[in-house]
Amino acid sequence: MVSLRISQQMWVLDLGEVRRLQTQEGPKLARYVVAARWEGPLGPRLLRVGVLPTQALVYPLMGDPLEFDQEGQTLRLPGLCVYLEGAPEFVETPWYVWVEPCASLA
Question: Would the pTM of this model clear 0.85, i.e. be above it?
């Protein structure tokens, strides 16, 4: 189950389990997609909110974390789009993440 948590400093999308993601930098494995507003080491701050840093894909937050849009299964923040249903027809922002479909075990 996917969930979203927002605070003044951070936007955290929990995918519920580690998933294969495609990003602007290539494939990654992560459970969390995080947009954070601060500089410096994020590890301790992520741990305080229950996010394992080794399972997090972190992006800089370019605006207010409440200023996000959802259209169907696409979440948009300034500079970042998260496509929950797989690859989009075209990428809209410099930073992006799409969740790869789960492979069937047939």
Answer: yes
